[in-house]
Write a structure and sequence with these properties.
Blueprint lengths: L2 H7 L12 E10 L2 E11 L4 E5 L6 H8 L7 E6 L2 E2 L5 H7 E4 L11 H11 L5 H14 L15 H14 L4 E5 L7 H16 L3 E5 L3 H7 L2 E6 L2 E6 L1 H6 L4 H10 L1
Parallel strand pairs: 3-8, 3-9, 6-7, 7-8
Antiparallel strand pairs: 1-2, 1-4, 4-5, 9-10
The protein binds adenosine-5'-diphosphate (ADP) and magnesium ion.
The site of adenosine-5'-diphosphate has 11 residues, from strand 2 and helix 2.
Keywords: ATP-binding, Nucleotide-binding, Transport
Pfam family, one: ABC_tran
Organism: Micromonospora pisi
Length: 258
Amino acid sequence: MTERDQQRARTTVPTSYESLSLAARDIHLAFGRHQVLRGVDLDVARGETACVIGPSGSGKSTLLRTLNRLLEPDRGDVLLDGESVLRQDPDVLRQRIGMVFQGFHLFPHLTVLRNITLALRQLRRLPADQAAELGLRQLDIVGLRHKADVRPAQLSGGQQQRVAIARALAMSPRVMLFDEATSALDPELVKGVLALMADLAAQGMTMVVVTHEMGFARRVADQVVFMDHGRVVEAGPPAEVFEAPRSERLARFLAQVR
Ligand code: ADP
Ligand code: MG
């Protein structure tokens, strides 16, 4: 990424988000006989960013997917601003809780702008001109308005991920979930996406971020949540979790990733 592009990757439009709180209560989930989540609790206040860390296979992605009902827990509840999401229409819920994955999941045959406006037109039923206007505004936010008419394959991985973020933001989500959003990116492209995520956090979006980027977690998280074997082993402010781990398991994990 050129320096100019890095600059563009910063949010160019000041925004503030009407975010909501998100909580998980005693979430249990098994795949067949494999108990993957064993009673997970999570509390993310309005405008807070929680970074979820932990070894591969500890249940981080599964937890994230239960939060927006891509998976249904066997037991427990998920609360959006105190209200159970299990009684809400999953389609409506997924507009309120945006999600960004490791792979970008953009439609290759559509332009960048069409990728963003598709859901606005089909789910929100916005007329074409309004959807385009809103889509372009989102592209401004992620610094990619100048790429509106190209196809995803013409963009770098970092730019594609910023388009995926813009697409999620276009639905006016109240919470954003990120599942290893930078893990598939070449190292030089990671920074721009993390900078965008940090901007979102600073502008008051409620976020749950599964990440291996310990520097990001330390800088941006209000709360760091360490998961192992389907449980939250420790959660707290970054300074505590990183500098004074209470459990052997967290200490060992941190020694490995540092
Ligand atoms: P993490 O994101 O922390 O690496 P995951 O939540 O992806 O962990 O996976 C937790 C465990 O659940 C792993 O052992 C994984 O193999 C298993 N798992 C995840 N998804 C499925 C699935 N759809 N079917 C069966 N097992 C799964
Ligand atoms: Mg995962």
